[in-house]
Amino acid sequence: MSPRRARRADETPKGPIRPAGIDRVEEAADGDWVVRTVTGGSADRPYRCPGCDQAIRPGMPHIVSWPHWAGGEEERRHWHTACWRNRLNRGPGRTRY
Ligand SMILES: [Zn+2]
After folding, report:
1. pLDDT in tens, 31-90
2. What distance in angstroms lies between residue 44's CA and the mean position of ligand 1's atoms?
3. How many domains does the chain have?
4. Alpha carbons 71 and 73: distance in angstroms, whole number
5. Claim: this prediction has a pTM higher than 0.85
6. From the CA of 8, how far away is ligand 1's center (Å)?
7. Residue 93 CA, ligand 1 centroid: distance in Å
8. Which residues touch 50 (CB under 8 Å, ≥6 apart)?
9. What is the whole-number distance in angstroms between the Cα of residue 70 and the centre of ligand 1?
10. How far apart are alpha carbons 10 and 29 in whole angstroms?
11. How many angstroms separate the alpha carbon of residue 6 from the centre of ligand 1?
12. Which of 5, 52, 61, 93 is 20 to 30 Å from 46 by CA-CA measure?
């Protein structure tokens, strides 16, 4: 079984054109993730970062990520940029959503 290979085909751009340079896909040890850099300007409430369990204040630039597979957008998480970068160093396989 190779679901990763099946997903790969979906990376071909199609459909409505997205704003350039905002979303990207990161391949990591814990899977493929869509990562969106958020300037924070449009946020009107704090989010809680799953990396450090601290608030991300409105207006603070941060990252939104979600699993790169069908339905993954339902699992969007807001992260501090540094916490996202460090998430794989926080312990072996405990943060699987
Ligand atoms: Zn954090």
Report:
1. 999 999 988 766 678 999 999 999 999 888 999 999 998 999 999 999 999 999 999 886
2. 18
3. 1
4. 5
5. no
6. 30
7. 18
8. 77, 79, 83, 95, 97
9. 26
10. 20
11. 32
12. 93
Q: What is the pLDDT of residue 93?
A: 52
Q: Is 4 a domain residue?
A: no
Comparing C-alpha atoms, which of 2, 34, 33, 31 is closest to residue 93?
Answer: 31
Which residues form the domain of 57?
A: 24-89
CA 71 / ligand 1 centre spacing (Å): 24
- Residue 64 inside a domain? The answer is yes
93: which DSSP letter? S
Is 41 within a domain? yes
* 18 falls within a domain: no
CA 11 to centroid of ligand 1, rounded, Å: 29
State how far the Cα of 25 lies from the Cα of 20, in Å rounded to an integer.
13
Q: How confident is the model at residue 10 (pLDDT cuts 50, 70, 90)?
A: low
